[in-house]
Amino acid sequence: MLSYSLLVLNVVLVMMNSAICSLLICIIAVFKLLLPTTSLKTFATHLANRVMWLWSTINAFILRASNRVEWDVQGVNGLKKDGWYLMISNHLSWTDIVVLCCVFKDRVPMPKFFLKQALLYVPFIGMACWALNMPFMRRYSREYLLRHPEKRGQDLETTRRSCAKFKHTPTTVVNYVEGTRFTGEKQKKSRAGYEHLLQPKSGGMAYTLAAMGDQFDSIIDVTLAYPENRDKPFRDLLMGKMTKIVVHARELPIDEKVNGDYFNDKKYKRQFQLWLADVWREKDEKLKTIHDA
Fold first, then answer.
1. Nearest-angstrom CA–CA distance, 274 and 277
2. Dihedral sign (CA 195, 196, 199, 202)
3. pLDDT digits (tens, 9 = 90+) for 20-64
4. Phi, psi of 136, deg, nearest 5
5. Taking a C-beta distance cutoff of 8 angstroms, is the pair 226, 287 a contact?
6. Do β-strands 70-74 and 111-113 pair in parallel, antiparallel, or remain unpaired?
7. Counting Cβ atoms within 10 Å, is residue 246 exposed (0-12), middle (13-18) or buried (19+)?
8. What is the spatial distance between Cα 235 and Cα 252, in angstroms, rounded to a whole number?
9. CB 152: neighbour CB atoms within 10 A?
10. According to the model, what pLDDT value does residue 156 have?
11. What is the pLDDT of residue 2?
């Protein structure tokens, strides 16, 4: 009974925090549209990012107050608050966004997530994410693209437009390479050969590197795990039942393995896919070690 009371309380507090911070960000965005110079617009963007930092800090306080979590955080030293990073991660739950923001909010620029188009219409949050210049992606099936070939390449153009807005302000762009949240059912259907991961999709990461590869300082490869709360980590977090959160990070260089013409050079495209497959195999091995500990 206490757990469900805590669930209701945490949901209310997190929703209030999200609504208030989203409203503040939207107000800043309106003023940003009216500002006459790039430097003033950059300052408004910085201010909006500070509100996102406040949102993350309050969420961290709420959830830490109701959970006795053992944090296993590794590989986050040496990162720069004023750098540009591409962050890639496995994806398990809505919890991932909260955790990444809590862990990295004081170590790198506030993370900006690639979001599904449908999230744009979520009250408060959708508009705030738009105001923060987060890219909204509309995914098309292969069958749809065969019927509408004119839609090919639109995600690349969307990514380029969004990333162009990041050039004046240090930014961390987050890409969930699997494209969807991990479940046991999806893992069986994927037949990718991973025990704790889905097949990585190289296209989204390649879009971002094509748009901003020269500007990124490095790639931050993050491995997330909730080893004692695997089934429903977000619910358990809100109910005060989360017991352990694992965040292992490492920096990968922007070198010839990830710097090339993915869309026109077939040899490079294959090389990039093999590189990403190696990264994902290492991540799967790390997750096996975490879960078997």
1. 5
2. negative
3. 999 999 898 888 888 888 888 888 888 999 999 999 999 999 988
4. -105, 120
5. no
6. unpaired
7. buried
8. 33
9. 11
10. 64
11. 62
Is the CB of residue 104 less than 8 Å from the CB of residue 85?
Answer: no
Across the range 8-31, mean pLDDT stands at 91
Strands 244-252 and 218-225: antiparallel
Structure tokens at 213: 């590869």
179: left (phi over 0), alpha (psi -120 to 50) or beta: left
**66: Cβ–Cβ under 8 A, 6 or more apart, which residues?**
6, 9, 10, 238, 240
Q: Mean pLDDT, to the nearest integer, of 151-168? A: 69
Buried b (16+ CB within 10 A) or exposed e, 107-127: bbbbbbbbbeeeeeeeebbbb
C-alpha closest to that of 87 among 52, 55, 105, 113:
113
In tens, the pLDDT along 219-253 reads: 999 999 999 998 899 999 999 999 999 999 999 99
Reference 174, options 100, 87, 80; nearest CA is: 87
pLDDT value, residue 29: 85
- One-letter amino acid at 8 equals V
